């Protein structure tokens, strides 16, 4: 199978809306707990769309996360995180991410895992909006399969205080949250446009 590397501005992606398959996606996070160990968890991705413009470049992203589905493997901690001191999921059950600033990585860096795109967007947690940058690793799409999906990985971080999650001092729950995403995107249903 022939693959076309998607690691720089010369790479063009089929225009249209690429839609995430939630069953094949994950968002994991990690934070320090009492400064001695790292707590990890997951938040389900319920939906995401990457809009690719007619020029073949990603133009915008919108994603929704199920805040009430947060899971760290510890039921008491999870109840606390869903509660009003942290995410208040009874009032704000959805976390959203929106971005329209998507920049290609260096054209000459084709190492596996090299940054292919830098995504600068806004995460909305409860009623607070905060900036988040994601680095999307290099990925490939099958050049000879019109219906092939694309698997990609991205990493980022945020200070939870900027997202309005200020409960608990930093030595109890670290302020810096590391993010790791694995996303499967399904291509637009329409046939690919011809790009000169």
CATH architecture: Beta Barrel
Tally of structural domains: 1
| Total number of beta strands | 12
Q: Could you report the average pLDDT, rounded to the nearest whole number?
A: 84
> What is the CATH third-level topology name?
Lipocalin
Distance between the termini: 24 Å
Shape label: elongated
- State the low-pLDDT regions, or none: 1-11, 190-196
User: How much helix is in the residues?
Assistant: under 10%
Largest sheet report: 8 strands, antiparallel, barrel
**Amount of beta strand:** over 45%
- What's the CATH H-level superfamily name? Lipid/polyisoprenoid-binding, YceI-like
Instruction: Assign the structural class, choosing from mainly alpha, mainly beta, alpha/beta, alpha+beta, or little secondary structure.
Output: mainly beta
Order of helices and strands: EEEEEEHEEEEEE
Radius of gyration: 18 Å
């Amino acid at each position: 199978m022939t693959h076309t590397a998607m690691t720089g501005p010369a790479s063009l992606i089929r225009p249209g809306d690429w839609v995430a398959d939630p069953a094949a996606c994950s968002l994991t996070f990690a934070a320090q707990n009492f400064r001695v160990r790292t707590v990890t968890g997951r938040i389900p991705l319920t939906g995401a769309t990457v809009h690719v413009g007619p020029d073949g470049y990603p133009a915008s992203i919108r994603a929704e996360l199920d805040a009430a589905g947060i899971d760290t493997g510890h039921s008491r901690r999870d109840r606390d995180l869903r509660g009003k001191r942290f995410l208040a999921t009874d009032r704000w059950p959805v976390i959203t991410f929106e971005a329209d600033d998507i920049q290609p990585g260096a054209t000459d860096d084709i190492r596996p895992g090299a940054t292919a795109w830098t995504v600068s967007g806004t995460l909305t947690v409860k009623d607070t909006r905060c900036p988040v940058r994601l680095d999307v690793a290099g990925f490939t799409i099958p050049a000879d399969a019109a219906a092939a999906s694309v698997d990609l990985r991205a990493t980022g971080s945020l200070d939870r205080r900027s997202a309005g999650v200020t409960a608990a001092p930093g030595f109890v729950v670290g302020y810096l949250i590391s993010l790791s995403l694995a996303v499967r995107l399904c291509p637009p249903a329409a046939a690919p446009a011809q790009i000169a």
